[in-house]
Description:
It contains eleven helices and ten strands. It has helices at about 15-25, 45-55, 75-85, 105-110, 130-140, 150-155, 160-165, 170-180, 205-220, 225-235, 250-260; strands at about 1-5, 30-35, 60-65, 70-75, 90-95, 120-130, 185, 195, 245, 280-285.
Amino acid sequence: MEVVTVATDLNNAFLNRLLIPSCAALGFDLMILHVDKKEFRPRDKRLALVEYFKQHPSPTDLVIFTDAYDTLFIRAEKYVRETYARFSRSVVFSGELNNWPLGAIGFLIENGPPVRPFPYLNAGGFIGAVGDLLELCIKHPKPPSDRFRILRDLRIHDFDTDERYGFSDQYYWTLVHLLETETIAVDHHAELFECFSAQVPPTWDVQVTLDINEFRTRGREADSYHRERARLEERLRAPSGAAQLHFASPITKAVLLDLLDQGRLPAWLGAFDARDYPPPRVQRMTF
């Protein structure tokens, strides 16, 4: 089974110290699509995947996409295949606590009440056959916002969600999922993917920005760092039942790398030693 990720920085610490070693230790074939683009945006991950899938030799091959700079794996292919087979849809996305980036607007376009504990799609991890994923991307070449009345109405009032959120591949996949519910499932119970992000208010909270800015200014002395460290250490006391773990947020990533440096990661997360494994495959992508 192939694990595919997209990266502009091949020297990223999380990629090299956590994602690459975890894939190697579990026997995953990791392919890094290297995009050498100065103004790379999250939505460009999809463009790289489309180009790669178009040249893939087998449309029936099962692949896992994972974010490059904030994810790792703790369970191997056998577990992934067996768990994936229990889903009734051919494509499965990670779930998360937050309807990001749409926030409260996203609640209005959801199909029914939230399925907890992870109600909303997270684009940092998904699995499906190459052909199915490529077909979805070709069918929806851009975010299908015109298919949602509330988003069309907002555009009339000069609130264009494509302009505001079009930078995000998660915005795109959220809309596609809501239109393709016969094909796409969300892993609401973290059986394959678990996102460790904290829950944030559904409307934009300036405190989120303040916390990140404080961390970037004060580093490990920032109160926001200590709060996130306490939260994450508490969460890591209990093992995850998923295969891929996602630590979105610059503060969360920094905490996890610090715990690694200090030898304080729990044993259930596994061992991370890149010296014992061959390097992953890397393919240069241009588009």
